[in-house]
Amino acid sequence: MNMKKKLGIIIMVMLLASLFNQNQTVYANEGADYSVSPIFSEHQTKTVDSFFDIRWEPKQKDIIGLKITNNEATEQSYSIELNKARTNINGIIDYSNNEPEAETAKYKITEIVKLPQKIKVPANSTKSIEGSVFFGSKDFNGIIMGGLHISKIDSSKNSASVSNTVSYNIPIVLRGNVDKRPNPEINLETIKVAKFSSDKYALNILLNNKNVNFLKEVKFKATVTNSAGDVIESQTNQIDITPETKFIYPIKLEGKYKPGEYQVKLQVNHSKKNRWTFDDKFTISKKDVKDIKAVTQNDNKNWLVYIILGMIVVAGIGLIIFLRKRHK
Fold first, then answer.
1. Per residue in 138-157, pLDDT tens?
2. Ranges for the WxL Interacting Protein host binding domain (predicted)?
3. Rounded to an integer, what distance in angstroms lies between the CA atom of residue 213 and that of residue 229?
């Protein structure tokens, strides 16, 4: 058999394998006790095989599902949460936040998609569950985003609770049957100084993506100035913003601040047509200054400890090398 025929057979096998494995994407960590894979509906986007991507069909009902494989020697139970997708404070799309959807939301994924919240799977077995997607009666021109958060339930305790081990997130995207999306709208809600992490404070700007638009690769440029107009802080970011979501954009406060009034200017650019500029004043109190200094000093102390430990390690290695050479 010549090389061309061999190559042709290999390509044909690969094509056939891809056709038969379109719905076999598996979410699994190496050595994990269980794995999860989505079961797609007839309205699944054909080119997407790693998460639910479904086109809206007015007055229709769609069937989706999950396949869970238990790799343990005993029966296990698993929790299945359906959550709205939210851009979190770190600029990452989060599918595990189980806070209720806002009452003002026009489209609630928890009312559109229905799935069992719990499943038991026998030892060393695979079990499937079925859920449904109820489309509204009217055309839809937006994007709805959510996700399934699957966790093992720890039954070793007196009261069963979700285990802190491996969990999986499978996104769900519902795309409108009308391709022309609504005009995006972002509003500023509140501004406040708050703790961002153990070693940082931030100016938290609460923004609201009001419409059913998924805004990808949105560019942020923020500048903080004092009452004299001096620039104290500046930062740039690029993040994705989920539809109908209130989210915090944090400006990390790393400069030297004194109590008083400051100005923040935030530019948000999605495209040439979609640009927003927010310009507002805020106050930093004496307590804020004290808190910011406290965490900054703690951070500096931590770095000093790391430097000293590094010097001790280097000195120790140098001493060992010296003694070995001397012994020779």
1. 999 999 999 999 999 987 65
2. 158-292
3. 36
